[in-house]
Amino acid sequence: MHHLLIVFAAYVIAAVSPDPSTLRIMGVATNHGRRAGLTLAAGVVSGSLFWGLSAATGVSALLA
User: Fold this and answer.
1) Exposed e or buried b for every residue in 14-44, given b needs 16+ CB within 10 A?
2) Nearest residue to 54 (alpha-carbon basis) of 43, 64, 41, 40
3) 10-27, pLDDT tens digit by residue?
4) How far is it, in rounded angstroms, from Cα 48 to Cα 43?
């Protein structure tokens, strides 16, 4: 049970902390406005979907 609590605590910290793409979106939105931030966010989401679908369909295994 003790190990499960450690893993859960690490998961919560990782889930709450922003990743580099989130920090970049916030920086662009702050410096260049909402439209630029939303455009970058759309690019990040579409890139993540592309890689997720590639991994799910096995294309990443073919590329490797």
Assistant:
1) eeeeeeeeeeebeebbeeeeeeebeebbeee
2) 64
3) 888 887 788 889 999 999
4) 9
Percentage helix, strand, coil for the chain under 3-state DSSP, each rounded to 5: 90, 0, 10
Q: DSSP per residue over 2-25, as a string?
A: HHHHHHHHHHHHHHHS--HHHHHH
In this structure, of 25-29, 46-50, 60-64, the range with the lowest mean pLDDT score is: 60-64
pTM over 0.70: no
